[in-house]
Amino acid sequence: MSPPETASNSNGGVPAEVDMGYEVHHPATRRNSMTVDQERERRASIKAILADDSLAPIEKRKSIQHLMDGRRSSLSGTSRRSSMSGASVASSVNEDAGSVVSYSYDKEFFISNAETRRAEEQRPSCHHYQRNCTIIAPCCGAAFGCRICHDECSDLPPKISNAGQYQRSASLPSSFTSTRMPESNDDTHHNIDRFAIREVICRNCYTRQSSKTNKCISCRCQFGTYHCRSCNLWMNDVDQPYHCEDCGFCRVGGAENFQHCDGCGMCIDRNLFDTHHCKDGKYKSNCPVCQENLFDSRAASHEMPCGHAIHWECFRELAAHDSRCPICKKTAETRERMMPTWEAMAAGVAIQPVPPELARVVNITCNDCERNEDARAWHYLGIQCHHCSSFNTVVDAIVLSGEEAHDFLETQANGGTRPPERRRSSRRLSSIL
Question: Is the pTM of this model over 0.70?
Answer without folding.
Answer: no
